[in-house]
Write a structure and sequence with these properties.
- There is one protein chain.
- This protein is mainly beta.
- 0% of the residues lie in helices and 49% in strands.
- The protein is built from no helices and ten strands.
- The strands form two sheets. Strands 2-10-9-4-5-6 form a six-stranded mixed beta sheet, with no helix packed on it. Strands 1-3-8-7 form a four-stranded antiparallel beta sheet, with no helix packed on it.
- Strand 4 and strand 5 form a beta hairpin.
- The protein starts with a strand and ends with a strand.
Length: 114
């Protein structure tokens, strides 16, 4: 299993970013996938997840600002991040959900300045 995240960057508050994650070794048509961020503790925190048929769930702090989507044919999931806030600054990852693979990708850094 492999996850390759991209799309992060340095932006000002209020701006947008679109993260992408190319997935291999997973049957996209049946697997829920999620975006995580490193957070404060040892475990990564789930930010948003998307089922194989496109249903989404978001944590309260990003609801209305972030949108998860996927293209199973391209084996890619996306996270559109709008109205970014400094507190969104973190290293973002994708992985299977609710049981993530032990093989995490490198993540993509999102930095939001005030």
């Amino acid at each position: 299993v492999e996850f390759v995240e991209s799309g992060g960057g340095l932006v000002q508050a209020g701006e947008s970013l679109r993260l992408s994650c190319v997935v291999s070794g997973i049957i996209m048509e049946i697997q829920t996938l999620a975006w995580f961020r490193r957070g404060v503790g040892e475990e990564r925190d789930m930010v948003a997840n998307i089922t194989a048929d496109g249903r989404t769930y978001y944590i309260d702090s990003v609801k209305g600002r972030f949108t998860a989507s996927r293209d199973n044919a391209k084996k890619t999931i996306y996270l559109q991040m709008n109205s970014l806030k400094p507190e969104d600054t973190d290293l973002y990852f994708c992985n299977a959900y609710p049981w993530p693979s032990a093989d995490w990708g490198q993540g993509t850094q999102v930095t939001v300045t005030p």
